[in-house]
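seq as requested:
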Amino acid sequence: MSSPTLRDFTVHDALSDVVMIVEGTSLYVHRQYLAEWSGTWRKQFVEQCPDDVMSTVTIELEGHKLEEVTELLQCIYSTLKPISGMFCIFIGKVHCLI
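struct tokens:
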């Protein structure tokens, strides 16, 4: 069985409406995925700016590692991504992000 192809978040697609900047790297994601997965993101996108749901949002995530944020995004976007032991430790450290 071959490994699943993981999403490359550094590549913009036509439906990306959030740019996360982590360690100087832009990650192109979708507010709907983030809002469905996290009440914190939902509140930011829906409740705090309800009239601005069509524009692209840029969020700079300071103090977070690109590798860890990418791992988190892979888990949100794909049910094919196995969860590693390293990620279990990471998610405990950044629970406030979600």
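The chain has four helices and three strands.
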